[in-house]
Amino acid sequence: MKRLSFLLIVFALPLCARAADKPPRGRLYSPLDTAAGAKAPESPAPWYGERLEFAVGWGLITVGHATMEVSDVVKCGDASCYHILSTAKTNSVTDKFFKVRDINESWIGVKDSASRGYLQLMREGHYLWDEWVLFDLAGKKFNGEWMDRGGNRDKMSGSIPGPVQDMLSSLYYVRAQKLEVGRDIILDVNNRENWPMVVKVTGREKLSLGIGKFDCFVVEPKVREKGLFVQKGKRLRVWITDDKYHTPVMMRSEVFIGNVTAWLTKLDRSGK
User: Residue-wise over 179-217: b if at least 16 C-beta within 10 A, else e?
Assistant: First the structure.
């Protein structure tokens, strides 16, 4: 399933599942899981040390919660990288119908904001899928490994056009850019396949949430060539604060019935 959206990939809350056998014991580990710590940069990104907590709803029903945090810097080969961790889980009521326990991790360069790799651990109903990918920017290639619910495992590899983003790092790459209405942000995304994407800054809105009021840019990612949102006309919007942090405070994506929305419920920047 190609999830070309910040919301359904970063938070990984699809509304379907696959039947399968009993899950295997254990999980995949990325080679970057054991990366040595690196010295914090002298001028870190505004979101370094940040933890965001979201409620996730389907229509008017709250179905789960998600987190995103950047708490450490590690060595990725010869580069220092921010380690981004995102989790998604359904609440106890939704668990009875469709249980989600997902983890997404990404490692992005401190100096160039390019992804060096990602890890996805997907537990969604009867669906289980683990995979990790490392990006070789100099060699313009990637390699990785996947495992399914049946315990089947295999290696994977391919080419990349140059520096790329994974699904999770894409959001942080956009946050690091200058945002202004009418501007397009162009990037290449890889999730075992290369997906050219353009993120459009479509407008400004004021949002009032439980934790405060925010002046926001509204951005919409779209695939520049064939892809899920182009083929089916689905719309994704992300509200990002108009300040130095460019914090995503709300995300909304159309699904086959209604929409899925994530809204910020807690913000902590004390982790530096």
Answer: beeeeebebbbbbeeebebebebeeeeebeeeeeebebb
Domain housing 51:
6-20+31-268
Residue 140 within any structural domain of the chain: yes
The whole-angstrom separation of Cα 196 and Cα 178 is 20
pLDDT, tens digit (0-9, with 9 covering 90-100), for 213-267 = 999 999 998 875 443 333 344 688 999 999 999 999 999 987 767 788 999 999 9
User: Can you give the pTM of this predicted structure?
Assistant: 0.87
169: its two tokens: 């790092």
Does a structural domain hold residue 26?
Answer: no
What lies within 8 Å, CB to CB, of 10 at 6+ separation is: 66, 68, 86, 104, 167, 168, 171
Report if residue 15 sits inside a domain. yes
> Looking at the 3D structure of the chain, how many domains does it have?
1
1 located within any domain: no
